[in-house]
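Example 3.2
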Amino acid sequence: MIVKPKEFDLNGRKLVLRNAEEDEAEMLLKYLKQVYAETPFLIQEPDEITFTIADEKKYIKENNDSDSDLLLIGMLDGKHVGNCSLMGNHARRLEHRTSLGIVLYLEYTGLGIGRIMIEEVCKIAKDNGIEQVELEVAANNRNAISLYNKLGFEKVATLPNNMKYSDGTYTDVHFMVKYL
């Protein structure tokens, strides 16, 4: 899904949310490897990111050509700070739902960027006829859960031991929904 780029003032700094472009594939692969190394809250280890640049270009193109999927990148003063996405459903019975994903570089968390990104993609979802936005979050990711609650998401279920870390420990995952 293509959306018009949007600018936000973030304490005197310019945050731009816009579609990813195919020529940014290499940058986005580096981003994935870094953010997966920075946090235990994502589903993969950095060495599991095996996409090629061609794969990433295809992924970007598919999102931009889609009627239900969206990949937005955030640029703060021209520097990439993270991504936010919507993954729609193609079955008619599920078209009213979408899944949200968001990941920022660790150094850009806590600045209000995540809030802006989530609010914006929820507006885009609603404008496109979506009735509910869903997400999964590690139960021990207290900062993210706090933000999601403030933005109107509610916990609807918990899956125990959803992720198993390399040290043998587990974490539960909460399923959260925001009704638009």
